[in-house]
Every structure is written in structure tokens, then in C-alpha cells.
């Protein structure tokens, strides 16, 4: 699906708005969707695109986000024009980014209420625009969360922010679709099968300590009127604290629990029970896909489950898809991430969002093994970076050699327009000037002093023709001057009874208008007459002349 552009105030998306966006650089259009995290669409435009100077911040783009849904809506947030490449990079965030501007006017507690009630309350309390909706399939009532949303907290922070959001405290997922945000457990989502060699081109397994917590320092802020310095409790270690060589410490604020009447020490001691898996490494599987037709048969979207088979790594697991990259133009998923990755970055709120999805693998490795994995990863990254630097240098050297070769013969410069990767025109001009010989699918032409063109229909135009001979040419609608015509040539003008023919043996024409005839030796008129100012002159076989039917007397008649 080609993305479609709409004005910032558009509310109806069944039409084509400002038009389908043409001139998108190949493979630059990517929708990236992360579970409880960033949901973005980025693309690059060539300078030749008619949308190059049309796209503006706050405009809306309609695009296909995955293989299941027809379309979703994104708002343009950043436009970056690169004068070197001539491209413009357009960055978009999901339309729900608008909800960052709508905030609570007073405190909103959630304990004692159902999810649907709280979502409705949040919408009403923030004056959320009518086209947006907050829905859920969760029936349980919140209890024991001690969460109270403070004034000036925006909707996105309350629903899926990193600290005490609804998604965080319930371990649920927020799925965005157009103007809807749906809170769900996603327990009944479907499962797809990915196999190495069938629809997986590459698979990588990563064990990460990102987000790992093995000990906490609990604290709370006293009520108003009391000492305003935070009150800290004793350090609390996780059951797996001794498994690691280093301590992964985090300060945790229990002010909400204390305000709600909870016991500070009891809540702090239950931290690791309330956050299972936070003291374990996260396992992450990244899959590069190919053979889109294979994937097309099993359509999938974010939060679905993936059964992953790879005999090379002895992998046979089922994990939830927590991130995917989708090419909306070719309608294919290019990267899928599934696993227990603990954290990701929410681009629009500029803060980390905890991703609590998936099962956490048992920790059986000791400290030395963990350190070895980290060291191996760093060494591997260093080797890859070195190879990448060498590759870049080779590419740059090759590019310089090619340009040097092209520019080495004379002063002409060959340019590929609008860009070298996807050229539609090739232009050769002197020193890169504005005039030169241009070639494209419509033909070849030179635009400068003396224009010449050959189009794809067989037509040729030139200011001048210079050559020894032209054979089999029909000249129409032109002017011929200063020309000498040699040989047995027949020049015909007109057709039928009005045709005039000029040949080597005479001129044949039904009518001739002559201003002056000099040096005429003989004129033979057969079966015809002369008209001189209305006087008709004819003759007969005996040599007599007649004017207007009356015989003209000659000298012999008077003798």
C-alpha cells in the first residue's frame, strides 16, 4: 500500500486526501511497533517528489502497519532535509501521540475500580477528544496497587508509562489502532510458525542484563507539613542476589503505598514477589524474515506468539512478538523480535517503558558464564564495527575511483537524477552545468545552444541537420531555404485535381500565378487558353489567334 497524505485537521480517511505519496526512496518506508512502547513510521522522499515541499509537521499519514490491518494513522512530528543527498527524512508517531497533550486535572486513584471504569474516568477527566477511545477486555477490579495518578499526568503516562501505569501494575498490553487504545492480556492471540530456511533468513539470540534489579533501596516522601527529606529503608536483596558478581541496585519510591495506608516495610519486602523475573536476565530472539509469500499465508501482528525453529542453534521455543518492523509498500515484515526483553524506549514520552511480557527462562548460569557472554558480545561488536569501517572505506574508495574515471575524459560530468540508487534521468553536462544531453525513458535530448531531441515514438528534432545525405525522409510543416536539389526528383504539392508536380522535364499544375517571366524562348499551350485581365486568348490548328471569340488579324490578312 502506498502511504496517503492528509491535512492536519482531516477527520475522514476513506478518500485519498492530498494524494498517494510518490517519490519514496526504496526500502526507506518502515513501520516500527514495540509492545507497550514506540509505534512509529519513517520514510525518505527524493527531491524530485511532488510531496518534497508539501509534507509538513502535524499532517497525517495513512499507512498499512502490518499484514493483518488495512491501515493505521500517524502524525508527522519531524522533517529533516539533507542538502547533501537531497532527501527529506519524515518521522511520524502514531496518532495517539496527541494524547500527550491531555492531562489529569486532579488525582485519579485506581484501587477499588475496574479497568473499564478507570479508562472512562481518565477520558472524561482529561477532556480527551471525542474521536479517541480507551477500551479493555479486562474485567477484574484493581486492588492493592496503591496507585494514584497525580494532576498534570498525561493519558499516555497513565495508561502505559514506565512508572505505576495501568499496563505496568496489571502486567497487560496496550495495543493501538487508529484512534483506539486497547488494554488487553492478549492471552488468546494466535501463533505463527517461523522456520530457518523457510521464512527466516537470520536468527540471533541475545541474553541481556538490561533492566536487571538484584537489590533495592526503598524510600518514601513524607506528607506535607512533615520533614520533606525522603525517608529511606534498609537495602533489600533479591533471592538471586548471590548469582551475580555485581550488584544491580535500584531506588524505589513507595510514597503511593504509604499515602494509601500501607506498611512501608511490608511493601518493600514484597517488591521482588510483586515483580517476578526482574532479577533474571532477559532472553531476546531477533529474526530477519524473507519469502514474504510464505509469511503472507500466516498473517500476524504485535503481541501474537511465534513458534521459532532453528536447528543450527537448537532453538524450539514459543515466544510473544514484542517488536516488529514492517515495509508498508511491499507489505512485508522485515524484522520480528520475540522473547522476554525487559525494557524498551517509548519515543514520544522520552522515558523507558518496562515491558513485562513473556516467560522468563530459568537462571542456571553462574557469574563467570554471565561475564563471559558479556565479554564475547563486546568483542563481537568490536569485530563487526571494524569490518563495517573497512567496508565503508572500500565503498568510498570505489565511489571516488568511479567518479574520477567518469570525470577524467574531458570536462563533462555525468549525473544520475534524482539520485544514484533510483535514477530516472541521466544527464551529461560540461562541468556539471545546467545544459547538457539528457536521457530517460521518453527519449534523448540536448538542452542548450542548438537543441536536438529523439523521443520514444521515433520523432527527431534538431535546429540543424548536418550530413551527406538523408534518405526516405518525409518533411512536413517545415521551411526549406537556400537549397539546391539534384537528380531525377519529383516534388509534389497538394493532391488530386489541385496537385502541382515539379519534375526534371517540367511543371504540371492546374493553375499558375506568375508576376514576371523573363527570357521565355517558347511556350506551348495545348487545348488551353490565356487570360489577360479578363481577355480570353485562344488559337486553332491553322495558327490563327482569337480574343473573346473574335479573330485577331495579322499582317498577312491585311495584304
UniProtKB/TrEMBL annotation:
Residues 193-340 form the Tail spike domain. InterPro entries: Phage_tail_spike_N, Prophage_tail_N, Tail_dom. It comes from the Bacteria. Residues 24-94 form the Prophage endopeptidase tail N-terminal domain. This is Minor structural protein. It comes from Companilactobacillus futsaii JCM 17355.
Amino acid at each position: 500500500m502506498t502511504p496517503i497524505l492528509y491535512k492536519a485537521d482531516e477527520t475522514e480517511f476513506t478518500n485519498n486526501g492530498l494524494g498517494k505519496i510518490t517519490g519514496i526512496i526504496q526500502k526507506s518506508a518502515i513501520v516500527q511497533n514495540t509492545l507497550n512502547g514506540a509505534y512509529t513510521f519513517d520514510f525518505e522522499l527524493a527531491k524530485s517528489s511532488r510531496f518534497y515541499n508539501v509534507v509538513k509537521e502535524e499532517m497525517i499519514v495513512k499507512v498499512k502497519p502490518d499484514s493483518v490491518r488495512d491501515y493505521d494513522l500517524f502524525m508527522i512530528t519531524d522533517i529533516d532535509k539533507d542538502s547533501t543527498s537531497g532527501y527529506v527524512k519524515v518521522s511520524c508517531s502514531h496518532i495517539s501521540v496527541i494524547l500527550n497533550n491531555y492531562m489529569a486535572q486532579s488525582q485519579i486513584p485506581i484501587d477499588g475500580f475496574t479497568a473499564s471504569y478507570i479508562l472512562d474516568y481518565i477520558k472524561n477527566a482529561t477532556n480527551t477528544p471525542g474521536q479517541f477511545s480507551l477500551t479493555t477486555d479486562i474485567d477484574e477490579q484493581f486492588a492493592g496497587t496503591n496507585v494514584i495518578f497525580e494532576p498534570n499526568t498525561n493519558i499516555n503516562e497513565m495508561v502505559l508509562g514506565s512508572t505505576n501505569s495501568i499496563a505496568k501494575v496489571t502486567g497487560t498490553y496496550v495495543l493501538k489502532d487508529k484512534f483506539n487504545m486497547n488494554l488487553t492480556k492478549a492471552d488468546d492471540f494466535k501463533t505463527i510458525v517461523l522456520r530457518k530456511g523457510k521464512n527466516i533468513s537470520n536468527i540471533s539470540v541475545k541474553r541481556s542484563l538490561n533492566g536487571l534489579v538484584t537489590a533495592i533501596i526503598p524510600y518514601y516522601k513524607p506528607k506535607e507539613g512533615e520533614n520533606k527529606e525522603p525517608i529511606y529503608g534498609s537495602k533489600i536483596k533479591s533471592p538471586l542476589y548471590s548469582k551475580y558478581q555485581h550488584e544491580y541496585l535500584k531506588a524505589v519510591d513507595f510514597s503511593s503505598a504509604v499515602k494509601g495506608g500501607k506498611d512501608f516495610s511490608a511493601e518493600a519486602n514484597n517488591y521482588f514477589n510483586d515483580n517476578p523475573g526482574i532479577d533474571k536476565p532477559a532472553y531476546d530472539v531477533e529474526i530477519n524474515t524473507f519469502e514474504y509469500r510464505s509469511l503472507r499465508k500466516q498473517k500476524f501482528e504485535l503481541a501474537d506468539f511465534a513458534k521459532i525453529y532453528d536447528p543450527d542453534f537448537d532453538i524450539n521455543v514459543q515466544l510473544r512478538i514484542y517488536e516488529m518492523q514492517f515495509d508498508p509498500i511491499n507489505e512485508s515484515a522485515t524484522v520480528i523480535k520475540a522473547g522476554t526483553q525487559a525494557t524498551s524506549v517509548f519515543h514520544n514520552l522520552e522515558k523507558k517503558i518496562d515491558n513485562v511480557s513473556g516467560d522468563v527462562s530459568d537462571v542456571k548460569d553462574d557469574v563467570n558464564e554471565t561475564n563471559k557472554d558479556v565479554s564475547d558480545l563486546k568483542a563481537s561488536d568490536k569485530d563487526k564495527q571494524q569490518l563495517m569501517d573497512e567496508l565503508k572505506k572500500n565503498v568510498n574508495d570505489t565511489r571516488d575511483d568511479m567518479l574520477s574515471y567518469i570525470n577524467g575524459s574531458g570536462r563533462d560530468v555525468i549525473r544520475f537524477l534524482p539520485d544514484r540508487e533510483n535514477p530516472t534521468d541521466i544527464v551529461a553536462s560540461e562541468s556539471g552545468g545546467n545544459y547538457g544531453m539528457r536521457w530517460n525513458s521518453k527519449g534523448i535530448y540536448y538542452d542548450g545552444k542548438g537543441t536536438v531531441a529523439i523521443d520514444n515514438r521515433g520523432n527527431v528534432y534538431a535546429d540543424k541537420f548536418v550530413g551527406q545525405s538523408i534518405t526516405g525522409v518525409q518533411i512536413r510543416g517545415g521551411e526549406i531555404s537556400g537549397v539546391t536539389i539534384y537528380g531525377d526528383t519529383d516534388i509534389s504539392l497538394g493532391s488530386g485535381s489541385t496537385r502541382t508536380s515539379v519534375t526534371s522535364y517540367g511543371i504540371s499544375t492546374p493553375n499558375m500565378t506568375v508576376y514576371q517571366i523573363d527570357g521565355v524562348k517558347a511556350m506551348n499551350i495545348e487545348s488551353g487558353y490565356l487570360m489577360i485581365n479578363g481577355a480570353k486568348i485562344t488559337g486553332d490548328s491553322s495558327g490563327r489567334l482569337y480574343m473573346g471569340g473574335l479573330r485577331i488579324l495579322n499582317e498577312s490578312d491585311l495584304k
